Each structure stands twice: as C-alpha cells, then as structure tokens.
User: Which sequence fits this backbone?
C-alpha cells in the first residue's frame, strides 16, 4: 500500500530524484524545501502528479505533518554553498534534525538521515568503513558541514535509544547526475560546464586527490532499500567504490565532451580530503545493494543534461 512520505530537501539534486522514484512506486510525497540550493525546475515534471505536494519551509523551524516516513536530506551539499552561511549550515544539521526527529517521534514515523562520507574527514584509513570514527578538523572551514552531520548522526542515535524512534543512517559518498546545480562549485558540475564552454578546467591542487563517484539513480535505489530494510539502523556507506584521481577525472570529461579546454591548477582548498573511497561490503550484505552505472555512462547522461541546460532547452 502507498505510504505518506516526507522528503526534506526534495527540490535539491538527490531529493528531486528520490521524490520522482517514490512517486513512481505509488507513494504520496511531500517535498519540503527552503529553496536555498534547490530549484523548482528540478521538480517541475512532478507538479502534475496528484500525489505530490510541495511546502516551502525551513527545517530550522518546527512543522507538524502526518507522515509514515521522513527522508531528511535538507542541507546544502557543495562546499561553496555550505560555507556561504556556515552558522546556518550548523543550524540546519542540528536544529533541523531535532525538528525532524521530533516530528518522527510524534507521529511514529521512520526517519532516514542523509549523512555523508565527510564524517570520516580527511581519512587516515582507506577505504572508509562504517566502524571508523573519522579524522575531522572541528574548527576549519568544512567543519560546519562535517561536524554538523556528525552531530546529526548523534541525535539520530540518541532519539533511537531514548525515545525508540525508528531510524536509518546512510553515509553518502560523492554523487553526480542531472539536476546538480550548475553554480554549486562541485567538481562534476564545474568540469562538465568548463568543458562544454571550452574554457580552462580548474584543478585544485595537483589533482592527485581521489574521489569515487556514484550515479544518482544507483544512490536513490540504495537510499530506498535502506529505508525499507528491517532490523538495521546503519550507518551504512552508499557510494561507488571505483576511485580515481581528480586529474584522471578531468581527462575523461575532456574526452567525452570532445572539448578544447586546457587544464589549469589552482590552490587546494583548506582541509580538502586527500582520498575517499567507500567500502560497501555492509551495503552489499545488508541491502543486497551495489552501484550498476559505470562512470562513463553516468557522465555521458550528466553531460547531456548540462548541455541542454546551457542551451536553455
Ligand atoms: P542540494 O544542495 O542539491 O540539495 C539540498 C536541498 O536542501 C536543497 O533543495 C536546499 O534548498 C534544501 N535545504 C537546504 N537547507 C534547508 C533548510 N534549512 N530547510 C529546508 N530545506 C533546505 O544537495 P544534494 O547533493 O541533493 O544533497 C542532499 C543531501 O545529501 C544533503 O543532506 C547532503 O548533505 C547529502 N549528501 C550529498 C552528497 C552528494 O554528493 N551530492 C554527498 C554526501 C551527502
Ligand atoms: N575540485 C577541483 N576543481 C573544481 C572543483 C573541485 O579540483 O573546480 C576538487 C576539490 O578540491 C576536491 C574534489 O575536486 O578535491 C571534489 O570536490 P567537490 O567540491 O566536488 O566535493 P568534496 O570535496 O566535498 O568531495
């Protein structure tokens, strides 16, 4: 039977894909968003669906809603945007998560928290496994996000222990795909737009730092599986274990776009993690989940999306 589901941050990159998938599974979906980094364009194609509702609201403020499940995704994800108003980022993760937990407790809904690989910080162990506690600078420019998300995990577990709220925690690793904001400064959108415009591709540092990129449809599949699994709260890593240095990533994008762009080097931002790759053994074991979309296939879909955006079609 269809459930009533709240998706906070539903107009954002991942949230918009999640709303679409939940609707296709015949659930009623309430998308709650303050439109800081999200956009109406991302959910325009869902507006005609009678099972879809949009609420402009900031999760820093409490809200009363009757739902069966909460996917708590509200929070800017790109370093540029979460550092734009760092205090607000902390409030979103702390006050916002408390409000969503309060809602879940009141109506006995299950709540899934979108946590992040950033809880591992600049990791000392590689690849990252869920039992690792992380190596995070508490006072740096990324801390509002990293520590905010860590406190959010703490709150989720405390509401579970103290109030028996049904909870799930996922740690999302770098994800990409259509509906990423073109101005959010993340590496995938930056490189693709630079390549499509034939302007310099900006590598921060020497490009030897690594990331592992997961296509958004794979991630959404894992998120929903985690919400629906029994007897497992997480945290669980969700990401693609194929790791590449940022320099190689730039070269693939130049190749796929046939771009004339040249690579230029800029200073590495403070506290930029040197390496990142999820160990997804736990997700495989508990959720029978692993990503299916190869990097080049996912990148081509994302390039086609940004090409349409840049052409205004
Ligand atoms: P996004 O910035 O595209 O989406 C976030 C959405 O939350 C936006 O629509 C924004 O307007 C909304 N929002 C922000 N603050 C809010 C507030 N106080 N109240 C209500 N709405 C608010 O980012 P995304 O990439 O879709 O990320 C979604 C979630 O996944 C975030 O919680 C992020 O931390 C997490 N995550 C994403 C990645 C990734 O690679 N994309 C990696 C790790 C974790
Ligand atoms: N990066 C880069 N050029 C850009 C944007 C990002 O070299 O134009 C690098 C960034 O320094 C980091 C990696 O790409 O090492 C991923 O950056 P992103 O902001 O996408 O995500 P995060 O650092 O949170 O993983």
Assistant:
């Amino acid at each position: 039977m269809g459930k009533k589901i709240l998706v906070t941050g539903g107009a954002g990159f991942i949230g918009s894909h999640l709303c679409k998938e939940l609707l296709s599974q015949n659930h009623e979906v309430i998308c709650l968003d303050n439109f800081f980094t999200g956009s109406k364009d991302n959910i325009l194609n869902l507006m005609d669906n009678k099972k879809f509702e949009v609420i402009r609201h900031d999760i820093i403020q409490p809200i009363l809603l009757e739902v069966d499940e909460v996917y708590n995704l509200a929070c800017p994800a790109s370093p540029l945007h979460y550092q734009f108003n760092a205090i607000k980022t902390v409030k979103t993760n702390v006050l916002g998560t408390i409000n969503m937990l309060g809602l879940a407790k009141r109506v006995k809904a299950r709540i899934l928290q979108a946590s992040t690989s950033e809880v591992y910080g600049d990791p000392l162990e590689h690849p990252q496994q869920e039992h690792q506690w992380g190596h995070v600078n508490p006072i740096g420019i990324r801390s509002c996000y990293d520590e905010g998300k860590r406190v959010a995990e703490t709150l989720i577990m405390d509401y579970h222990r103290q109030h028996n709220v049904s909870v799930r925690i996922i740690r999302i690793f770098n994800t990409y795909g259509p509906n990423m904001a073109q101005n959010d400064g993340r590496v995938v959108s930056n490189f693709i737009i630079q390549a499509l415009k034939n302007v310099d591709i900006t590598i921060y540092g020497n490009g030897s730092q690594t990331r592992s990129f997961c296509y958004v449809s794979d991630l959404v599949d894992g998120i929903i599986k985690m919400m629906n699994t029994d007897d497992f709260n997480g945290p669980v890593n969700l990401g693609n274990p194929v790791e590449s240095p940022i320099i190689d990533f730039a070269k693939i994008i130049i190749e796929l776009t046939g771009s004339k762009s040249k690579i230029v080097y800029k200073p590495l931002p403070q506290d930029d993690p040197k390496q990142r790759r999820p160990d997804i053994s736990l997700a495989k074991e508990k959720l029978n989940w692993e990503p299916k979309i190869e990097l080049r296939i996912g990148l081509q879909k994302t390039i086609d999306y940004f090409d349409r955006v840049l052409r205004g079609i």
